[in-house]
Amino acid sequence: NIQSGDIITVPIHGSMLQNRDKLIRVNKLLYGEDEANAAYWADFILWLLANVPQYRNGNHPIFSFNAYSQTSLDFYPFGTIPPKIALGDGIIAPYADLGFGDVAPQAIFAHEYGHQVQFQNEVFSGGTADPEFTRRTELMADGFAAYYLSHARGASMQWKRVQQFLQVFYNLGDCYFDSYTHHGTPAQRMAAAEWGYRLADNAQKQGHILTSSQFIALFDASLPKILGR
Ligand SMILES: [Zn+2]
After folding, report:
1. ipTM
2. Domain chopping of the chain, boundaries
3. Ligand 1 centroid distance, CA of 178 (Å)
4. pLDDT of residue 125 exceeding 60
5. Long-range contacts (CB closer than 8 Å, 24 or more residues apart) made by 172-181
6. pLDDT tens by residue, 54-80
7. 30 C-alpha vs ligand 1 centroid, how far in Å?
8. What is the Å distance from ligand 1's center to 7 Cα?
């Protein structure tokens, strides 16, 4: 029950590094370079792509191994950036290669969409950068994702199949997609996902979808159990 109409989803392509005009624009906007310096660094990146075959012309997954969600923001003087979910080729393609192409994109997107639900419910307001705060919001996003993926009126996926993917996904480590801080251990992330699945499984009998604030309240009540204490 959030406003989803203005959320945009964009890909992250490493091949963007081949585009001199875009490199110059990014250098100017984000790093404050003047035209000459921005062009210097753009040409340096193009030189690297041309001379280091391991970079695969920008298509090495290291350049796009990421997925993230951001809230709307004013980027003065250029305008307002709408709420956005970005999914990198470097994270989507390898899971397809591993045989998870039927579930990985949905699951990764659902986790990031969970952050959009949090933005609109102001779950992040008053937040700190400490690991416990991040762990709560990340585990909650895992719970939202599992709820959506398994719910009969969501992606309606077989939970066994989702679990197979999550076992790989969560065990890759903790964690890297959209935060440099603590996402929860693999066991805690799986516990949060199982919790979301059970919530959906129970709701299916009534064909009911919880509001986001109901979901958040239920999650917070269960968080100590998910954390294993
Ligand atoms: Zn996250």
Report:
1. 0.99
2. 12-63, 98-227
3. 5
4. yes
5. 175/138, 176/65, 176/66, 177/66, 177/67, 177/68, 177/91, 177/108, 177/111, 178/66, 178/67, 178/68, 178/69, 178/112, 178/115, 179/134, 179/138, 181/129, 181/130, 181/131, 181/134
6. 999 999 999 998 898 999 989 888 889
7. 23
8. 16
| C-alpha 204 to ligand 1 mean position (Å) | 26
User: Could you tell me the distance, in angstroms and rounded to a whole number, from the CA of residue 51 to the centre of ligand 1?
Assistant: 35
Q: Is pLDDT at 126 greater than 90 in this prediction?
A: no
Please tell me the distance between residue 24's alpha carbon and the centre of ligand 1 in angstroms: 30
CA 92 – ligand 1 centroid, Å: 15
Q: Residue 106 Cα, ligand 1 centroid: separation in angstroms?
A: 14
Q: 1-14, pLDDT tens digit by residue?
A: 999 999 999 999 99
